[in-house]
Amino acid sequence: MIIFAVAYFSYGAFQCHSYGWGDMYVHHAWIYGLKEGKIFSEGVYPEAMHCFVYCMNVLFGIPVYSCLLFMGEIHVSALIVAVYCLFREVMKSKYTVYLILTAFLTVDVVCVDEIYGISRLQYTIPQEFGLYTQFLCALYLICFIRRNPKSDREKKKGIDKNLFLFTTSLAASIVIHFYVTIMAFFLCASFALLGITRIFRKENFRPLVVAVIAGGVISTTPMILAFATGTPLQGSLNWGMNIINGTDTKEGRTQVAQNISEENSEEENSIKKNTDIRSEIQENQTTISANKDMTQQIENNTAVQKHFAVKGMVQKIIDNIKLVYKYGYAQLYGEERAGWIIRFTLLSLALGVLNLIIYFIRLKKFPFEMYLGITFASVFFMILYAAPFLGLPEIIAGARLCLTEQILLFAMMAVPFDGLFFLFEKTKAARFSPFLSLLGVVSIYVGTHYFGIFHGYLYYELTRYNSVVEVTNSIIENCPKYQYTIISTTEELYQAIESGRHEEILDFYNRSKQEKYIIPTEYLFFYVEKKPIQYAQYHFFTGPRWLAQAKYTKFYKYSNAVLSEGDEIANSQISEFLLNDSITITGKASDAYSNIKNREILESEMYFWCQKFKMHFPNEIKVYYEDEDFICYVVKQNTDHLYDLSD
User: Fold this and answer.
1) Calpha distance 425→431 (Å, rounded)
2) Residues 25-59 pLDDT 10s
């Protein structure tokens, strides 16, 4: 299963040779800051992932670019193992977890938020790098609460190993990404809810509080010290707060929820206005009647108010349940699948309650029930997703919850099967349990193909051609360090920063119009896209059907995203007619390249500048590489007599 997961989630790195998500460039810059001795180079931010990559680079000499490009398979493996460990612990049968993992790795999704959330697991970015820690936090908390020292000797053994591992898992989650810590809290709370009496036992509560404090202190001390000595907070932390307060509209959905709420309120006010007119007539009639017996009327009114208060509270709960269903289950999974999920939720809830009753009858005390914990977790995370539509703050951007919620839902739906496995293992045929489990795994894999619900290929946020990445690798390998400059869009800066210089094509365009312009390196490489690429397009992969299917692009037909799939890449064409056209001014170079018109102009200007240079110095500029989409020119300079690159 780990091999299959690695193949699926790292497939994109072998199809598209550049970073798959824009945030990866930012994190690359922060890692390079560590190499330069600058801790928190862009402000205070959880640095664990950056430190991990920094160590791989320093200890083993692996380029930062390669680490970030291929490290997804490491955190994917860690996630699969952590999920396995948690549900191996909480399920009654040790074989049920295989069904959960198989379903997660094969069943498709039907919502853009889910496709985005699962696609993020391919990228080396902090939240996805640390997703495994939330499952470990829950695992070790459960193991700690379950422990029951039978003697004073056991109590005096020292630090409980599960509590120690809970502390380290909690600390790891904080130093990787705060979202992971928040998810870990809700996941732990879901399971701890029914073990609350155990938590507040003297022998458990004090060590647990100390463990939580220790985890927080260990992980936040570097950040607190940095902030106290004048390092500002990194802007992403403000982004997180903007999600909560509803001002972010890129990933946050609070404003969308408010608009929907206002539309519904207008309809309700219209209905209420008509109702109020009828109520006023009835009230006048009631007033005439009430004058006959005022005392009786007051008593009746009090009873009626209590009745309506209770009724209103019940109605509010029902309305919120409907909203969670509509903007949670139905929005993510569609009406049909949502119906099945609700049925399984009720079934697993019933099984959890049944276990409670049986356990209480047998042992005269309530157990630390895991089935209910799994069910509660799946419901809590769905409430978190639907929070802005319930009038609650969006603590975590909804799409960031989807991958964890997907795992929890499959675990919840596996509860009935776990009960059957458990009963089967109590029979004489128990020795066949491994084979039954294997049959279940194969059945899920074959069944998803047969019923057309096998998962689809994911996407990268494509920013350049594969040939560009390969040419840059060739330059890095063959040219002396820091003796070359690549003139191109921003992406090559990160790939070549450890061995060469980079000049933005936008800066080259502006500076070449000055009176004098030189670049002081021996080699100059000019990158020109003959077919300028649609920057940051969602490029979906294609490949063998045993691994995945091409099926997710249809869910984006109503979005503004630029899509491409397989060998087809959305691009444009350079032209001489674009020379001297004005460029839309943006805050930074990378934003300029995302405008296809700007990109067409810049690439055209670069191409025809090279042609003009060739006319004057035909033997000094050569084609280093060329295909139908991209061409790279190279100029070798005499460093004592540099070329003037101005027009």
Assistant:
1) 8
2) 999 999 999 999 999 988 999 999 999 999 999 99
Rounded to the nearest integer, the mean pLDDT of the chain is 89
498: phi then psi, degrees, rounded to nearest 5:
-85, -5
Residue with tokens 């640390």: 130
In this structure, which amino acid lies at residue 552? Y
pLDDT of residue 573: 94
Query: Which stretches of 489-643 are assigned E, i.e. beta strand?
Result: 501-504, 523-529, 537-540, 563-565, 621-626, 630-636
For residue 527, the cross-strand partners are 632
Q: Write the DSSP symbol of residue 486.
A: E
In the chain, what's the furthest Cα-to-Cα distance? 112
Give the single-character DSSP code of 452: T
Q: Cβ neighbours of residue 222 under 8 Å, at least 6 residues apart?
A: 39, 47
Find the DSSP H helices in 107-234: 112-119, 126-129, 131-146, 152-155, 161-176, 178-192, 196-199, 202-228
Q: How confident is the model at residue 288 (pLDDT cuts 50, 70, 90)?
A: very low
Which among 605, 468, 15 has a CA at the least distance from the CA of 476? 468
The SS3 of residue 202 is helix
Range scoring the smallest mean pLDDT among 74-78, 199-203, 547-551, 610-614: 199-203
CB burial string 180-205: b at 16+ within 10 A, e below = bbbbbbbbbbbbbebbeebbeeeebe
Alpha-carbon gap, residue 81 to 73, rounded angstroms: 12
Condensed to tens digits (0 to 9), the pLDDT of residues 164-178 reads 999 999 999 999 999
Three-state DSSP class for 440? Answer: helix
